[in-house]
Amino acid sequence: xxxxxxxxxxxxxxxxxxxxxxxxxxxxxxxxxxxxxxxxxxxxxxxxxxxxxxxxxxxxxxxxxxxxxxxxxxxxxxxxxxxxxxxxxxxxxxxxxxxxxxxxxxxxxxxxxxxxxxxxxxxxxxxxxxxxxxxxxxxxxxxxxxxxxxxxxxxxxxxxxxxxxxxxxxxxxxxxxxxxxxxxxxxxxxxxxxxxxxxxxxxxxxxxxxxxxxxxxxxxxxxxxxxxxxxxxxxxxxxxxxxxxxxxxxxxxxxxxxxxxxxxxxxxxxxxxxxxxxxxxxxxxxxxxxxxxxxxxxxxxxxxxxxxxxxxxxxxxxxxxxxxxxxxxxxxxxxxxxxxxxxxxxxxxxxxxxxxxxxxxxxxxxxxxxxxxxxxx
Length: 377
Known about the structure:
There is one protein chain. The protein is 47% helix and 13% strand. The protein has helices spanning 8-19, 35-45, 55-64, 74-82, 100-108, 118-135, 144-153, 185-188, 198-206, 208-221, 259-267, 281-284, 299-309, 313-329, 337-348, 357-376; strands at 2-3, 28-31, 49-52, 70-73, 89-92, 112-115, 139-141, 161-168, 228-232, 238-244, 249-253. The strands form two sheets. It has a seven-stranded parallel sheet with strand order 4-3-2-1-5-6-7, sandwiched between helices. It has a four-stranded mixed sheet with strand order 9-8-10-11, with helices on one face.
């Protein structure tokens, strides 16, 4: 199952499947609104199920479905999709909170999940990891940074690891002075290395994406926040590193192409030739590394603060950021307003410790309303 099949991760996953047809069969696809495109993908890959979260788009897709493709509608349709008999792996690439319920459902059923949606572990890491432990299902990282760490850690005892180092391109602004109040939407979306969706690209420009990845790494690898570092690496060739207790560094390198991480999650524990482009180090030349300036990128500190506080605060961080980024993309908020809205929303939230899933959903709702009010001001 591919959740988010029309996004950049979903399309790349389908390219991996296309390159390895003898290994995979696509059973179902899920989208938010792009039902027609999902139907086209379903016919191309002979997938019998398509789930469309938006009810109006689902009705249109159901009317247009041909060739025995069954269209499932709404949030319940996503849950029904991942519960289909014969499902071995769910690739979760739905942006935002909508991806959380189907991921939990898949893990509860004992279905392995290849996770590309940061928000799932950011807002509900304790619940997701508990569901994985109860069922014994595997949680395989798809983010290039977490995939790199996963590959470096494989088979190594925890007491051999000193720290994890997440690399960051730094987006379009890391290497030059910028007046944050004059940053335009076009400038923020001009990522030098990766082709991503608009929201994720803005998160890269603010480095909130790296803050979210710190929280995600904490849950995936059961490592304390003080042992997770971020390092700027503009070439995006070293996807992350692990420092061992003897001072050795292990790194995973590849061309900047998400298919590497996706393919490894889909084929794990095996490595196969998927006709991906090789890395020519001689042609590449030098690689550069530096520490991020915390004053220039306050989102890193905000994410660490949310992670340290725990409870419902990470959900508030995530929701407020989504609202602020949406407002920036609509030219209703200056670029620097993104982290100001997030900080003010976090400060106003009465965080709840040891939350249930319902508490997390309520914190998400509260934070969105509070952040919208601050955007309006």
